[in-house]
Amino acid sequence: MKTIICDIDGTLIKYMGDNYGMLKGNVVALPGAVEHLNRWEQEGHKIILITGRRESLRKKTEKDLEKLGIPYDLLLMGYADSGRIVINDESSKLKAHGVSLPRDVGFVDYDWRETGLTKLKL
Fold first, then answer.
1. 41 assigned to some structural domain
2. What is the pLDDT of residue 121?
3. Is residue 94 part of a domain?
4. Edge-to-edge strand order for the sheet containing 74-76?
5. 8 Å CB contact between 19 and 55
6. Which terminus of the chain has fewer Cβ atoms in its 10 Å neighbourhood, N or C?
7. What is the pLDDT of residues 61-87, one digit of tens each?
8. Range of the domain at 27
9. What pLDDT does residue 23 have?
10. DSSP state, 113?
11. Which residues in the chain come in under a pLDDT of 50?
12. How much is the pTM?
């Protein structure tokens, strides 16, 4: 089992800009995002979603994630996306990966097997 920590805007759903855009915009899942997260959840991985969205947008965010069918175990709100760093101990095998995807591209063109996750054929 792995713990997957994933950004929301521009990674799972189309980037809508500022808080006003998030409130008024229609959420659209990016290619492969929903399918991959559901597969990884079925495989027993834990999913933590993290976003720079304000805590005041939690209900809207939860509603949007549910509408799109995006599973998660924990939703962290208000964590600025000006830079996130994963720090982990090292052992005989690599235990932490960092994946940076271009904004609004989705999950289909990345070979997730490099991180130990299943790559779906979509």
1. yes
2. 63
3. no
4. 3-7, 46-50, 74-76
5. no
6. N
7. 999 999 999 999 999 999 876 778 788
8. 3-83
9. 65
10. G
11. none
12. 0.86
Taking the CA atoms of 79, 108, 70 and 27 in sequence, report the sign of the dihedral they define.
positive
Number of domains in the chain: 1
CA distance 121 to 64: 25
What pLDDT score does 18 carry? Answer: 66
Handedness of CA 24, 51, 39, 113 (dihedral sign): positive
Residue 33, in any domain of the structure:
yes
Residue of 35, 10, 15, 36 lying closest to 25 (CA atoms): 15
**Tokens, residue 80:** 């600025």
Q: How far apart are CA 122 and CA 119, in angstroms?
A: 9
CATH code: domain of residue 58: 3.40.50.1000
Please report whether residue 9 resides in a domain: yes
Both tokens assigned to 52: 């720079």
Quick count: other Cβ atoms within 10 Å of Cβ 24?
9
Determine which helix (DSSP H) or strand (DSSP E) holds 93, and give its type and residue range. Answer: none
pLDDT at 88: 83
What letter does residue 21 receive in the DSSP assignment? H
